[in-house]
């Protein structure tokens, strides 16, 4: 009788033990992300993809900051304070742990820590950033602008300019964050009451800062003067604004026939008349300069009027279309009811 071959049992597959968290790291699964994080994550953004590639090659070199949070079941979790982009990159690469500095911050101190950590990062949208900084002041009524500016490593003037963006209409803040309005123009626009800001949006988007700042400042001055006198400000209209010509243009005029032309246009009769005419020309408020400004103003107003009429026409057409559709639906319903009644 042949001897039977013994059956060899394959060894049981070992059960994988959970990886041990390295010192100075926390498990990514235990991290809780703040719903009101200062900056979101755009997985298609080029800068974010660079972070992902860096983490892939070298790991997370700069530790994130977290704080301990006791969950309802008694376990310890970690609330994210700083390092949203690095954490997202690690998650993208299916990392299990990430280096982290564990701090002991109260709930109210987290926002301030995030603001300070992001103070010099240009990718933070300015208007959104201003809103978050304002939240710090609202949460800390005794905190002065000077103290907060010091914590942000910025000047008080920088902080005041930044916070002025919170005075802008919400739609205008969006234009600032989208880069459609220069910051210099946005700061000047914020000096105007909200109801006046809409009249200057087009200019804020197109005019160079030296022209727009002068115009917005002049309008703000007129409004404040009227308020002090207890009067209603006059409706915004064309007002010539002084803005200095470029130095190169002024130098060139000194060696050309420009002074003669200016004096003729201004009707100069005395040396003092010539001096005043030269100053007006240099500041673009001579007859030629004012005419050019007025032509530009009228062109802009005509464009605004045409766009307004176009919007109103489109709205009227849309309402007419909706009314026609409702009429058809009602006609169908009434026709259906009539048909049933006849039967």
Question: Helicity level, as a percent range?
Answer: 55-70%
Stretches where pLDDT is under 50 for at least 5 consecutive residues are 1-11
Q: What structural class should be given to the helix and strand makeup?
A: alpha/beta
Total DSSP E strands: 5
Strand order of the largest sheet: 1-5-3-4-2
Radius of gyration: 33 Å
Outline, from the CA principal axes? extended
Total of DSSP H or I helical runs spanning 4+ residues = 15
The largest sheet, given as strand count, sense and whether it forms a barrel, is: 5 strands, mixed
Description:
The chain has helices at 46-58, 84-92, 107-117, 126-139, 145-151, 156-164, 170-177, 183-189, 194-197, 201-206, 209-228, 247-254, 258-266, 271-282, 287-342, and strands spanning 25-27, 31-32, 64-70, 76-82, 97-103. With 343 residues, the chain is of the alpha/beta class. Among the domains are: 22-106, Conserved hypothetical protein from pyrococcus furiosus pfu- 392566-001, ParB domain (Alpha-Beta Complex), CATH 3.90.1530; 247-338. It is extended and about 90 Å long. The termini are far apart. The model is unreliable at 1-11 (pLDDT under 50).
């Amino acid at each position: 009788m042949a001897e039977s071959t013994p059956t060899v049992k394959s060894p049981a597959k070992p059960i994988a033990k959970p990886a041990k968290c390295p010192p100075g790291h926390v498990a990514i699964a235990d991290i809780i992300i703040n719903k009101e994080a200062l900056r979101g994550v755009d997985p298609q953004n080029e800068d974010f993809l660079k972070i992902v590639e860096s983490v892939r090659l070298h790991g997370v070199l700069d530790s994130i900051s977290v704080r301990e949070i006791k969950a309802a079941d008694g376990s310890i979790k970690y609330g994210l304070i700083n390092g949203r982009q690095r954490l997202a990159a690690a998650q993208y690469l299916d990392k299990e742990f990430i280096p982290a500095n564990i701090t002991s911050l109260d709930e109210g101190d987290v926002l301030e820590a995030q603001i300070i950590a992001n103070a010099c990062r240009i990718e933070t949208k300015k208007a959104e950033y201003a809103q978050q900084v304002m939240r710090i002041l609202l949460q800390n009524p005794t905190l002065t602008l000077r103290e907060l500016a010091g914590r942000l490593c910025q000047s008080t003037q920088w902080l005041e300019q930044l916070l002025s963006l919170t005075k802008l209409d919400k739609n205008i803040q969006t234009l600032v964050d989208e880069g459609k309005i220069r910051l210099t123009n946005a700061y000047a626009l914020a000096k105007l009451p909200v109801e006046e800001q809409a009249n200057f949006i087009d200019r804020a988007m197109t005019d160079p800062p030296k022209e727009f700042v002068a115009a917005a400042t002049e309008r703000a001055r007129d409004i404040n003067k009227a308020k002090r006198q207890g009067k209603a400000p006059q409706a915004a209209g064309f007002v010539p604004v002084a803005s200095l010509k470029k130095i190169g243009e002024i130098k060139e005029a000194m060696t050309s026939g420009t002074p003669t032309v200016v004096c003729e246009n201004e009707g100069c009769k005395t040396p003092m008349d010539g001096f005043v005419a030269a100053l007006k020309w240099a500041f673009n408020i001579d007859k030629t300069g004012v005419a050019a400004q007025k032509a530009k103003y009228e062109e802009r107003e005509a464009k605004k009027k045409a766009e307004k009429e176009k919007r109103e026409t489109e709205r009227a057409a849309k309402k007419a279309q909706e009314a026609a559709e409702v009429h058809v639906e009602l006609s169908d319903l009434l026709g259906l009811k009539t048909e049933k009644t006849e039967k």
